[in-house]
């Protein structure tokens, strides 16, 4: 049975998730859901001292993303409004596994399972990956104060974690198409031809009938 589109755009910090989500939403006339980032009061402290502030940071993100997922279900999907989001809540476990101490991760995992057990899943994922040079250039370009102290080692580990997670995601969710995009090669912000290529690719999946517009 065809499903109403719920597209999640994912990838490591700085890869351009929000910019791409906005362009997809505008092109297909979908509802846009943007991640709450800079409102997190712990994020700046987290990048200064990951070990000290990781649990507070991840719990804030989890609660806010859970609330946004409820909004997707009640305000959009139930009213037959397609959605594109610049994240999905499954990303929380990527970050939590990397940053939390073992005892904190056990607690966090239990809370995560309770909050997300009945939440809507995306029926298409767009995964954008890129090398460190590209990520740091785009982080520099958007100039967020809270990201000023991101360390290369952390960002590389995170990128590697994303690769591992997405490989596993495709194995465990064969019913959810994943569009992989090379952010080093495709600059959908600067070059219209790159954006057109992506929009055409997304449109071809929508037209297959697995999801409906």
TrEMBL record:
A Gene Ontology cellular-component term: cytoplasm
CDD domains, alphabetized: dNK
Domain of life: Bacteria
One MF annotation (Gene Ontology) recorded for this entry: ATP binding
SUPFAM superfamilies (alphabetical): P-loop containing nucleoside triphosphate hydrolases
Entry keyword annotation includes DNA-binding: no
Keywords: ATP-binding, Kinase, Nucleotide-binding, Transferase
Deoxynucleoside kinase domain: residues covered: 7-204
Active site residues per record: 86
InterPro entries in alphabetical order: DCK/DGK, Deoxyribonucleoside_kinase, DNK_dom, P-loop_NTPase
PANTHER family: DEOXYGUANOSINE KINASE, DEOXYNUCLEOSIDE KINASE
Entry similarity comment: Belongs to the DCK/DGK family.
Designated name of the protein: Deoxyguanosine kinase
Lineage summary: Bacteria, Bacillati, Bacillota, Bacilli, Bacillales
């Amino acid at each position: 049975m065809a499903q109403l589109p719920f597209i999640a755009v994912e990838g490591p910090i700085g890869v351009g998730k929000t910019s791409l989500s906005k362009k997809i939403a505008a092109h297909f006339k979908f509802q846009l859901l943007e991640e709450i980032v800079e409102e997190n009061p712990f994020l700046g402290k987290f990048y200064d001292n990951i070990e000290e502030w990781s649990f507070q940071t991840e719990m804030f993100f989890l609660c806010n993303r859970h609330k946004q997922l409820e909004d997707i279900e009640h305000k959009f999907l139930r009213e037959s409004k397609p959605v594109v989001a610049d994240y999905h809540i499954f990303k929380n476990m990527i970050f939590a596994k990397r940053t939390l101490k073992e005892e904190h991760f056990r607690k966090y995992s239990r809370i995560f399972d309770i909050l997300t057990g009945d939440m809507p899943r995306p029926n298409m994922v767009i995964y954008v990956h890129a090398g460190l040079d590209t990520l740091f250039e785009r982080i520099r370009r958007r100039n967020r104060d809270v990201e000023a102290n991101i360390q290369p080692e952390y960002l590389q580990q995170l990128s590697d974690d994303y690769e591992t997670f997405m490989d596993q995601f495709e194995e465990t969710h064969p019913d959810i198409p994943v569009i992989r995009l090379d952010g080093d090669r495709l600059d959908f912000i600067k070059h219209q031809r790159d954006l057109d290529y992506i929009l055409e690719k997304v449109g071809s999946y929508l037209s297959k009938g697995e999801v409906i517009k």
